[in-house]
Amino acid sequence: MSTPQFDYLDRLEAEAIHILREVAGQFERPALLFSGGKDSIVLTRLAEKAFRPGRFPFPLVHVDTGHNFPEVLAYRDELAARLGEKLIVRKVEDTIKRQRLREPSGKFPSRNPLQTYTLLEVIEEFEFDACIGGARRDEEKARAKERIFSVRDEFGQWDPKRQRPELWNVYNGRIQKGENVRVFPISNWTELDVWRYIQRENIQLPDIYFGHERTCVVLPSGQLLGLSEHLRLDEDDEIVTRQVRFRTVGDSTCTAAVESDAATVEDIIQDLLLAKVSERGATRLDDNISEAGMEDRKRNGYF
Amino acid sequence: MDLLRFITCGSVDDGKSTLIGRLLYDSESVSLDVLAALEKRQASNGTVDLALLTDGLRAEREQGITIDVAYKYFTTPRRKFIITDAPGHVQYTRNMVTGASNADLAIVLVDARQGVIEQTRRHTLIAALLGIRRFVLAVNKMDLVGYDQAVFDQIATDYADLTNHFHLPAAVAIPLSALQGDNVVTPSTHMPWYTGTNLLAHLESVPGSEEKAADPRFQVQYVIRPQTPELPDYRGYAGQIQSGQYRRGDRILVLPSGLESEIEALEVNQQEVESASAPQAVVIRLRDDVDVSRGDTIVPVAHQPTSTRELEATLCWMSEQPLAPGRKLLLQHHTALVKAAVPTILYKVNVQTFEHIAADTAQLNDIVRVRIKTALALAVDNYQDNRATGSFILVDEVSGDTVAAGLVEAANSEYFTAPIAPPVVFSI
């Protein structure tokens, strides 16, 4: 009897499905954090493979910063309807009012740091014991050290020195009341792996991932930021119209566009193979603040 | 394209992080902005510190050490690589065990100036214990010994003595300098006497992740029951095939209940298939309405594992609170979670020599042989036969922390009625 050969994408897929089913088997009230980005879209495809013909054993939860791209919100609603799964939306706007938080100031006001407050609120509201997210270890150095099952205290905080050893594919999700676990099924995938999987599975994505014409502000770094009502522009800001696409779809005020004519997934993969700038570096304005930017935010309960 | 998972192990200053940095850097897996961040912090002599590519936490950068297991990824046209970087300090053995548990290959780093030292033995034996069968001996810092062949040959011979002594597979020895880039991704011009491959070429050519031939094993993770008008009676047992192959029509046994049935359908991604193999995620439906739930094992009648409430195991103790005999814990055997007790500590293993030492407790980072009793029967194989079904973790009931990694060494009931065997030399 010969053993079949499996492609590396088959192995990554099998690992991710296994992780999703462990969440279903070990937790009472899990949730899938859905941002409308490609990584969380891939998670919904993996969840279909893990749980159909049954329903997902968790709702999709979206923390809406109020600065999202409208195309992404439309995609989100359409996907939830097509899947027939429950979608819970909670707005950062409401958290700001309720907790009297200070709105971010500055020229490009990012609500990314405030997402954490809303996330912790929604976890408390629904008593979620596990939150599945699409984070990958290749995104950032601090993420490279995080477990697939990452235990957080009641404030959502990550303590890198107190992480549980994670052996073989045995995932320990035992927690005490008030704690919860963040689960990252595609930890071992890279950006390129995600795109190759999207291509192989023929997954539809929001249009903003592909090249399109957009009016943008040119930042001092040379990066392009899509024009939106949330930006506080100065008179001498340079406004241009370019053919661009987005590599990530975070908060529109801090997610830069890259110039690209890529019209298909295949074009994007070719772009990536040539690309010399990493995903977060190309597009996120908020991680560069300090070298330990992500580590600090994760310690404070961020994803 | 296939996949290779490897672990790098070495002592504190052997240059592990630099080696990984070099692999990423020379294989053009580091992007411009990451490089720019590195260059901001470059040393006064203008060279980029490649170790900063893996040292991700603030304390690590401050102390210039690696605290925790880090995972790094790179892809060449030949394959995708997952690197586990395990710290070298003595007190972090648990991280080494963690990293080795998922690796196909180990790169053991040695400083050319120091040769094979205690830690080299320790790392090699732990990797072998965890089931790694492919080793690369990376003799690093050759630039600091004048690229001297005699130095390299002596270290390679010393290491061969070590692997021979413990009946381990022979390692491939490569002389290199991670700092200068010799023989990592590009061949060295400094060592014409070396005619073997460079490290990356070797990593690209060894067999990738593959399933060891083993009996079919499957554990239920989750029961799919749609209970819809269209599928009122559907019951699918979802899980990952741990080893071997399953076929539609196989006569099977559910353990620990011992109920017998037949595989009516095997589904992968909602498609019915004739057969499926490890590591595929599948749904199994059975012909009979037998009681099956999470944690149960489904195996062919012809290839049964041991179903037992008593087993002998090697533990790597990972908690600061020592293990005392009689302690009650939870044992997680993949999806099965049962109460367990450790009534007997047989001996402690000296990880430099693999000699047995009498012990009545296990401290953090100790490797001990124990007997375990469980409240419910587990379907297990010996770890050396089956990495998936021979492995488990022990969990503290109160804190929920993982306190030990466990490898099943013996699981038949006759064994437990026999007198305790005299210590044997480590063999595989």
UniProtKB/TrEMBL annotation, chain A:
One GO molecular function term of this record is: sulfate adenylyltransferase (ATP) activity
EC number(s) from the headed UniProt entry? 2.7.7.4
GO terms under biological process = sulfate assimilation
Sorted UniProt keywords:
ATP-binding, Nucleotide-binding, Nucleotidyltransferase, Transferase
Superkingdom of the source? Bacteria
* Keyword Nucleotidyltransferase in record: yes
Q: List the InterPro entries hit by this protein, alphabetically.
A: PAPS_reduct_dom, Rossmann-like_a/b/a_fold, SO4_adenylTrfase_ssu, Sulfate_adenylyltrnsfr_sub2
Q: Does the keyword Coiled coil apply?
A: no
Q: Which residues form the Phosphoadenosine phosphosulphate reductase domain?
A: 30-256
Concerning Pfam families, the annotation shows: PAPS_reduct
Q: Belongs to which family? A: Belongs to the PAPS reductase family. CysD subfamily.
| The protein's name in its UniProt record | Sulfate adenylyltransferase subunit 2
Supply the source organism for this entry.
Hymenobacter mucosus
From TrEMBL, chain B:
Q: Which positions make up the signal peptide?
A: none
Please name the InterPro entries in this protein's record. CysN_GTP-bd, CysN_II, CysN_NoDQ_III, G_TR_CS, GTP-eEF1A_C, P-loop_NTPase, SO4_adenylTrfase_lsu, T_Tr_GTP-bd_dom
Record-linked Pfam families: GTP-eEF1A_C, GTP_EFTU
UniProt GO MF annotations: ATP binding; GTP binding; GTPase activity; sulfate adenylyltransferase (ATP) activity
UniProt entry keywords in alphabetical sequence = ATP-binding, GTP-binding, Nucleotide-binding, Nucleotidyltransferase, Transferase
**How would you classify this enzyme at the top EC level?**
transferase
Which SUPFAM superfamilies does this chain map to? EF-Tu/eEF-1alpha/eIF2-gamma C-terminal domain (SSF50465), P-loop containing nucleoside triphosphate hydrolases (SSF52540), Translation proteins (SSF50447)
Q: What is its EC number?
A: 2.7.7.4
Superkingdom assignment: Bacteria
Entry's PANTHER family? TRANSLATION FACTOR
Q: What is this protein called?
A: sulfate adenylyltransferase
What species was this sequence derived from?
Hymenobacter mucosus
